[in-house]
């Protein structure tokens, strides 16, 4: 069976005061049906732009999808007319944002907003839609739905709002859920509850694309993953293999940044240095200034394209055509 989503050679550019920058650079990955895929990296690495390109939510301008294909259910979403794309959004692709207020209208009651989604796509009466919205609030763990349906978003806590957002994204049973840092704005206890809730709502018909900077979230939620750095995928593969044997020095750095509670380590460590400006990338590897394994050739030439090593793929001079150098 072909994958539900195939992103092929995607490039997304943004116009800035200082010229065009490439936010997503020749990216390819696939998400099979009923599986969970994580896209991880530091902020500014291009993961959100990649994810938002799928439902075509990248603002154009200043953004521009300049190359590539996004095959969803066998059709290239980038070639669809806007009306057909709108029909797919919500019904077949649900999006959970980091900050629910991005997606929820502050001016309308929770019940109206949920019922509207059902009413538009399912052609049921508003009364039935409202009843269904109440059922969904219960499903996402919001007690007393009759009262909550009448509430405005600002009257709910951050955790409650995120539960409403999850209900909104899942209410039409989409085939793909895109979750962009869905727990980052929440405190740790609520984070765990929201991840549990999301996991409980996934089934073999639903695929998840999880965007996060947190390897712990990837471990909890995903079966396969890609690591992004400076607009490119630097490593990809099954989560288990990648955690057991991270090949790219950046992936290893991210692993060391997993909070102690998840790693049984003494304390959190960080990758020193900063992501280079996408407007001024170095000639060689974009990670060279931060890499503990940097070699002279890394400064001169960009790393080769992703190449297979076991079940993983990695783009790094350490893993060229010759057997991989010893890893630490
Ligand atoms: Fe480090 Fe070189 Fe690999 Fe870049 S290509 S990650 S600098 S070893």
Which key features would you list for this structure?
alpha/beta, 2 domains, eight-stranded mixed beta sheet, four-stranded antiparallel beta sheet, binds iron/sulfur cluster
Molecular structure report:
32% of the residues lie in helices and 23% in strands. It is of the alpha/beta class and 328 residues long. It folds into 2 domains: 167 residues, 3-Layer(aba) Sandwich (Rossmann fold); 79 residues, no CATH class. Strands 6-7-8-3-9-10-12-11 form an 8-stranded mixed sheet, sandwiched between helices. The protein has a 4-stranded antiparallel sheet with strand order 2-1-4-5, with helices on one face. Strand 9 and strand 10 form a beta hairpin. The protein is globular. Bound molecules: iron/sulfur cluster. The site of iron/sulfur cluster (SF4) has 13 residues, from loops.
Kindly provide the radius of gyration, computed on alpha-carbon positions and rounded to a whole number of angstroms: 21 Å
Specify the biggest β-sheet: 8 strands, mixed
Structural class by sheet pairing and helices: alpha/beta
Distance between the termini: 38 Å
Adjacency order of strands in the biggest sheet: 6-7-8-3-9-10-12-11
Small ligands present: iron/sulfur cluster
How much is the average pLDDT? 87
Q: Which range best describes the helical content: under 10%, 10-25%, 25-40%, 40-55%, 55-70% or over 70%?
A: 25-40%
Protein name: Oligopeptide/dipeptide ABC transporter ATP-binding protein
GO biological process, one term: peptide transport
Family: Belongs to the ABC transporter superfamily.
GO cellular component, one term: plasma membrane
